[in-house]
Amino acid sequence: LLNALAASARRHNKKFKILAEYPYKKETVRQAAEAGLFISIGGDGTVLSAVPLITAAGAPLLPVNFGKLGFISSVSESSAVHILEAFLSGRTADYKTENRRLLEAGFCGKRFLALNDAVLSRGSCPRLLRFTVSISGISITEVRADGVIISTATGSTAYNLAASGPILHPQVPALILNLISPHSLTFKPIIFPENETIQIKVSDLPEKHRAIIDIDGHLESALKNNGDMRVRLTDQKISVLKPSEENYYLVLKEKLKWGV
Q: Residues 6 or more apart from 30 whose CB is under 8 A from it?
């Protein structure tokens, strides 16, 4: 596959670079900002690890499935070569482009972008934590749980789904708030429109313990007792190249056995 993709790039006089490193070096991120297209070869985890590079460049992504599930990276080997040729030739009718909205998670004075989700959890803490949920500055509820998942529509089929959350079509501009093992019979996931900001404050952490923030399953950071994380849906998008004939609901059926 690499040879076929490289041959296509050469035919169109395009330079390319193969990256097999992670985490990425600063020089790699700097060089990636000049890219016109990214091709990920692997599974959905490979796509998520490349989000910082893709957002730095603002270039589209061609995600080729070499992983186990391949829900985001659903493009087959044969389709990948065809789409690359069409992209480089300007034949936009031969593929389709899906724009996936990113969320922004802010904590400890830093901000990070995520394609799937931001997760705040108890980490190695041996007991449930108390989470205070505020929506656009209004305190809504407190709940004890193992953690909180805030997911985009794209991420709704990832950790959120494993925690019995709802599935959203990837074009729905919304965020999902879902709890991990809440100590409650009534707390259910809720979907928020794109203009809301979700703030999660964590408390009841034992001394010397920290809550863990996980961004797209790759970047981890610690949060002290009474610290908080603020999450909102941004206008920033990742453009994903897909086969023209691909249907989201059929992918749901094939990959996740929905309705089977």
A: none
Determine the pLDDT at residue 260.
Answer: 76
The pLDDT score that the predictor gives to residue 123 is 86
Question: Distance (Å, rounded) from C-alpha 33 to C-alpha 26?
Answer: 11
Confidence of residue 26 (pLDDT cuts 50, 70, 90): confident
Strand ranges (DSSP E) for 51-137? 61-65, 95-107, 110-114, 117-121, 129-135
- Say how far apart CA 224 and CA 82 lie, in whole Å: 49
Domain ranges within the chain, ordered by starting residue: 2-90, 102-236
CATH T-level topology, domain 102-236: Tumour Suppressor Smad4 (2.60.200)
Please list the active-site residues.
44
pTM of the model: 0.93
Q: What is the 3-state secondary structure (H, E, C) of 124-145?
A: CCCCCEEEEEEECCEEEEEEEE
- 89 φ, ψ (degrees, to nearest 5): -90, -5
Phi-psi region of 34 (alpha: psi -120 to 50; beta: other; left: phi over 0): alpha
Query: Rounded CA gap, 169 and 249, in Å?
Result: 9
